[in-house]
Amino acid sequence: MDFEAIKAHLAKKGLKATHQRLVVLQCLLMLKNHPSVEQVYEKIRPGNPTISLGTIYKTLETFVEAGIVQRVSTKEGAMKYDANLSRHDHIYSTNTQEIIDFEDEELSKIVENYINKKRIGNFKVNDIRIQIEGEKINPEKDIDII
Amino acid sequence: MDFEAIKAHLAKKGLKATHQRLVVLQCLLMLKNHPSVEQVYEKIRPGNPTISLGTIYKTLETFVEAGIVQRVSTKEGAMKYDANLSRHDHIYSTNTQEIIDFEDEELSKIVENYINKKRIGNFKVNDIRIQIEGEKINPEKDIDII
DNA sequence: TTTTAAATAATAATAATTCTTATTTAGGAA
DNA sequence: TTCCTAAATAAGAATTATTATTATTTAAAA
Fold this sequence. Notes:
2 copies of one chain form a homodimer. Chain A is α+β, with helices and mostly antiparallel strands.
């Protein structure tokens, strides 16, 4: 999603393409590590010293409502946001406090089909997520998915 | 898990079986709806008017450390706790803000096997959770899983 | 029983988030 | 392009959620 695509997306939702919004979204797309509001703030501040923390809170929630970013489900601390809208899951590393993207179309399909077959009465399923929790063996190195 | 089993469990962890702890755990086992600290507090207070909110915070976190209850992963608001330790997943109803238990051994096994087969390098998997997000058709009625 | 380390109540402190309002600005209209 | 206006922002106050502190109480071992 480039700048023009973002602007178009905002316009479609009747939202103004302010400098603050573009910077916040660009930051989210760059970071990729599901940052908190505070982390976005610290990243952006050097280049935008007058931006307000409240604006970042508001901007991110506006994006959630507009369907441009998603909240990340966690068991602790501050809210985290994710600009990766492709169907994907998360690996939670408890010892390093990282949340890493995990993409596996095949697994997603298997689970989706299973649940659709099962049918849940009086309920409309909108999204299915798999959370893989565990810990990095070597916290310094990246995990690698074979 | 009855009272004596709880006492034994606490003793095994070197924790005192205080009245407050027993009441909090009993409440959690009864409620089953993954309550927040505040919800436990309101539920317990009538019968235990001198109990302190801070004690409930502390008690629940003590239970988490002792492995007696688990935190529930959410995208918003206050922390929620779950005393159901059997392997299970959660259905998140966004329109009613409910979190409902979902047990399906077969699905759990399928996903677990799939991920174990895949192997994630430099990472030790401890837990796999499936989150089903959606909305109740009729918010008044329960969902029913066929 | 007595002792004592652990737990609690009460409350202060901190952290995370939301709200309020005066000022600024994006984007449409003239 | 300039003007207009509704929407957005900055700054900071207020609220909510959680954690820390400390004097007092209590479970459970001696």
